[in-house]
Each structure stands twice: as C-alpha cells, then as structure tokens.
Amino acid sequence: MVFSSLSPFPTMTPVCDMGKGEVVGVGGKFVFCLTILSLCAETLLCFVELMSLIVSTDRYLKQNWIYFSGSFYYISTTEKSWQDSRIDCWGRGADLIIIGSKEENFQKRVWIGLSDRQIEGRWIWLDGSALRKSFWYPGEPNNDGDREDCAEMKFFNKENSWNDAPCTNKYFWICEKKTGV
Ligand SMILES: [Ca+2]
Ligand SMILES: [Ca+2]
Ligand SMILES: [Ca+2]
C-alpha cells in the first residue's frame, strides 16, 4: 500500500519510515508516507476519509501520476496540440498544469495551462486566474509571427523556461489534479 503526505491536518507532521520525499522506482515517482493511526486515532470519520484518500492516491500512483505538494501530475508520453492536450487531461479528470511556484517547473518540454488566446498579450491560467508569478525565458513571450498564444515549458533546464508557441504545435504536456486538501 502506498501512503501519501496528503495530510488533512496541516498542523500535524506526517511521519514516515521511508523518509519524506524519498524517490522510489523509475520515473522519479515520489512516494510520501504518513502514519495513519497516529493522526487518525481520534475519530472514525477521519479514519474513513483518510482511507479513501489513500485508496485514490494509490490508484493515481499506479497510473503513473506523481504526487507533489497538494497536486497529482501526469506527464504525457505522446505529443499533441495544446487543445488536444487539454482534452486528454479532461479525460483524466484534470486539466493542464497551472504553475504557482518554481518547484512546479518540470524538467521536460511540455505545454502548460496558460494562454493569451482570448486577448493578445493578456496571459490567463486555465482556472481563469491572471498571471502573477511568471517564468518567461528572456525575450518571451514574443508572439512570433503574430501566432503564438499558448505557453510551453521550453527551456526546462533553466528557471525561466517558458515560451509562447503556436497552439497547433505538438508537444508533450502535464496534467494537474489538485487534491483539495
Ligand atoms: Ca499547480
Ligand atoms: Ca500571443
Ligand atoms: Ca515565443
């Protein structure tokens, strides 16, 4: 059984024999643990909720999702246009990744959930939020050829990695599903 650090009790510290953040197996899958009984001895409801969380976590990890800091991430193995990437994520109950911190910049050239398709130059995340913290590569976004409205993580070995590209280009992509806890 795989446990996760999706603690519904932020004030309690997850305890794990394997060590928090230990990388297990191929593909850099992060497996976090917690000790259920020490956190959840108090109420049955809590225990039931936590068990369902663990079952869904186990299912995601088996489908090659990665857990990190409150979200699951799925990294595609094929390349698609930005919109087709979204549709794939929807089919997985998720959407393209929304990047809130530099830790969410993955080491792969992928589409991210950011576009200026509605109003040129106004970059909006897929959840409707405006772009605050950004990681554009120097000189980007440049709307090259007046046809670049979707954002990709292009220079993924740099902290400022983003580029705007034509939405019809085909790249790998990352889906993100927040856990809600
Ligand atoms: Ca995110
Ligand atoms: Ca544009
Ligand atoms: Ca560009």
TrEMBL record:
GO terms for molecular function: carbohydrate binding. PROSITE patterns: C_TYPE_LECTIN_1 (PS00615), C_TYPE_LECTIN_2 (PS50041). SMART domains: CLECT (SM00034). Keywords: Disulfide bond, Lectin. InterPro entries: C-type_lectin-like, C-type_lectin-like/link_sf, C-type_lectin/snaclec_domain, C-type_lectin_CS, CD209-like_CTLD, CTDL_fold. It comes from the Eukaryota. Residues 68-176 form the C-type lectin domain. It holds the Pfam family Lectin_C. Coiled coil: none annotated. This is C-type lectin domain-containing protein. It comes from Oryzias melastigma (Marine medaka). The lineage of its organism: Eukaryota, Metazoa, Chordata, Craniata, Vertebrata.
